[in-house]
Amino acid sequence: MIMFFSSPSDVKNNGHRRFFPYCHIILIPRGVSGHESGGITTFFARRFHHVTDHSCAIIMGSGDSTLSKIPNVEELMEETGFSPAHVVRLYERFQALDKSKKGQLSRKDFESIKELATNPIRDRIIGAFFAQGQEMVDFHTFVRILAHFRPVDKNRPKKANMQEPVNSRTSKLRFAFQLYDQDNDGKISRNELLQVLRTMLEMQVTDEQLESIADRTIQEADLDGDNAISFDEFRKSLEKVNIDHKMSIRFLR
Amino acid sequence: CLCSDPPVVSGLAPQKLAGTRKNLERAWDGIMDESWDLTFAVVKAWFSVVVTFIMLPAMFGVSLGITELYMKILVKTLEQKRLQKQMTQGIIQRDDGSMEQEIGELRRCRPKSLAGGEFTLSDIFYFSRKGIESIVEDEVTQRFSSEELASWNLLTRTNNNFHYISLRLTVIWGLGVAIRYCILLPLRITLAAIGLSWLVIGTTLVGLLPSSRMKNWLSELVHLMCYRICARALSATIHYHNKENKPRKGGICVANHTSPIDVVILANDGCYAMVGQVHGGLMGVLQRSMVKSCPHVWFERSEMKDRHLVTTRLRNHVADKEKLPILIFPEGTCINNTSVMMFKKGSFEIGGRIYPVTIKYDPQFGDAFWNSGKYNMVSYLLRMMTSWAIVCNVWYLPAVERQEGEDAVHFANRVKSAIARQGGLEDLSWDGGLKRAKVKDTYKEQQQKKYSSMIVGEDSSD
């Protein structure tokens, strides 16, 4: 890890930094990583601010500081609300899944997760990561999708014209809605419902049973009589469900 | 330039040159000879040290206390507070509720208008959450990579999550590298070479004798000595517990598998008949010579596919009460010593008494797990020989037999639970073969079956 201080104008470019006359270089054996690098960065930034008379940008050089390897990591954390420690862990998981070291995940990488193979709707969940026509998922998309499952931030201040946070109740509902609504037309049609039921139940139920279940469900939820479930009808039918608890994963510190 | 000199002088100069050249050559030879002598002397001294202080005591099972001293110093160095780090348990915390419980909770919120089992739109929450949890962290994949340590043990290979601590630590680390690579590694390689050659020579010699009690006794002696030398070659400190349950002749010894070194660990305390595939190269030489002195069970690659043949041969071996107990690793592959994975039922169909054994390595001194996807055998052995030491505990569990009407799978699970409990390992029912193979569809069908019984419930008439 080599730390040196540079002017703020260099902050934007990732990788090119100019030495300042007063640069402090501390050499540390390669292979020792800055796991808690977020903390170290702010620590030094505060201490040395007055010395160099510029706002410091501290870069971790040839060492294994994971956080610095991720491009636009601040933006990602702001958008998704993950802490630096979580992002680092997710990055390590991303790298572990990316066996051929492409920097992106393909469908095959997801399919190689053993535990996921037992999930009946595995393909739909994997499909949620890949946008229309995309064949690869980069780290940002990976984290953004996973952020849907962060617990709801109860104390988030409501700013005007701020985008809906990724892990709000509405966003979670939308994620679930899209698992049903594969053609993205904003409605869950009878056919789409039948398809989902078929993947979840496959050989265990007859076709007639499937159809009667689908009909019953649409009957219950459909309020405007168009024989399909729109997002609002979906939301209404689930208004009493504790979405935050059921659609959240507890991330450890 | 000599050519410009007068002829008289030029006549003399080449001779002088030749003379100087000869002197130089002689001096050079002298130096070379001396350095060869020096090298030989050093090598001789090295060998005598090795033989006297390490090999001979090892062969006779006597300990000179050098290893104990080394371990004490090591433990003291590694116990320093500054090496401690916060335990990373995992990324997420999982709910252990069953499918019925979770989906039931989801449904309770809605007014129930129809009787009997039914489907609700909220059911998908359960599956999607489970799916995302698997994507973030799954139970199975992490078993096929090395365990994370709570505190750094001064080996570069284990410090993925540590940050810089102090200059003093770096110096100690550097010293550690020097000791491990320059002192310990050559020593260990020498010992390993001696041990293996002794195995080949010794067993061949014993194989020349006619069959008799003497031969069996000698063969056991040779095997034990060789394995003891190999254990010293890895600086292995092994604690055996419950020796009264040690496997006896005509039985089957079953243990959890972490690395190829398991064989050395177990064979240090008793003699076993090995089971395995015939290899070529060095392994093949070892196998052929071992089988000369006492019967091991080696299969050709083609024979391995025929399960009936394998079972018959093993059964015949076990039936002969004079033959040594067979050593089998039912997991079929190396797991990282934090859990025990599914035992293949083949070994449990042979019959005979099963002697379960638990092997638990202490990761503080060296990670013994062989990640066969990442390292091949040679680099794995090199890593082993440049670790501080291999420390492990071996527990012999009381013998078990198959009960009346118990099927092999159930029996295997029973033994597996006993082994896992003893070593404090997690008992998983996942197949170790998943390391390389795909998950079978039966797992998915199980989930679907469970879910369908919730939806259709008592309604299903067929």
TrEMBL record, chain A:
Keywords: Calcium, Cell membrane, Cytoplasm, Lipoprotein, Membrane, Metal-binding, Myristate, Nucleus, Phosphoprotein, Protein transport, Repeat, Transport
Highest rank taxon of the organism: Eukaryota
CDD domains in the record: EFh
Annotated ranges, domain EF-hand: 168-203, 209-244
Pfam families: EF-hand_7
Cellular location(s): Cell membrane; Cytoplasm; Nucleus
Listed GO MF terms: calcium ion binding
A cellular component annotation (GO) from this entry: cytoplasm
Record-level GO BP terms: protein transport
InterPro entries the UniProt entry points to: Calcineurin_B_homologous (IPR051875), EF-hand-dom_pair (IPR011992), EF_Hand_1_Ca_BS (IPR018247), EF_hand_dom (IPR002048)
Annotated family: Belongs to the calcineurin regulatory subunit family. CHP subfamily.
Protein name: Calcineurin-like EF-hand protein 2
Top-level taxonomy: Eukaryota, Metazoa, Chordata, Craniata, Vertebrata
Encoding gene, per UniProt annotation: chp2
TrEMBL record, chain B:
Pfam family, one: Acyltransferase
Intracellular or extracellular location(s): Endoplasmic reticulum membrane
Residue ranges of the TM segments: 45-66, 165-183, 189-209
InterPro entries from the UniProt entry: LPCAT1-like, Plipid/glycerol_acylTrfase
Pathway the protein takes part in: Phospholipid metabolism; CDP-diacylglycerol biosynthesis; CDP-diacylglycerol from sn-glycerol 3-phosphate: step 1/3; Glycerolipid metabolism; triacylglycerol biosynthesis; Lipid metabolism
Principal location listed in the UniProt entry: endoplasmic reticulum
UniProt GO molecular function: glycerol-3-phosphate O-acyltransferase activity
Keywords: Acyltransferase, Endoplasmic reticulum, Lipid biosynthesis, Lipid metabolism, Membrane, Phospholipid biosynthesis, Phospholipid metabolism, Transferase, Transmembrane, Transmembrane helix
Family statement: Belongs to the 1-acyl-sn-glycerol-3-phosphate acyltransferase family.
Protein known as: 1-acylglycerol-3-phosphate O-acyltransferase 9, like
Encoding gene, per UniProt annotation: GPAT3
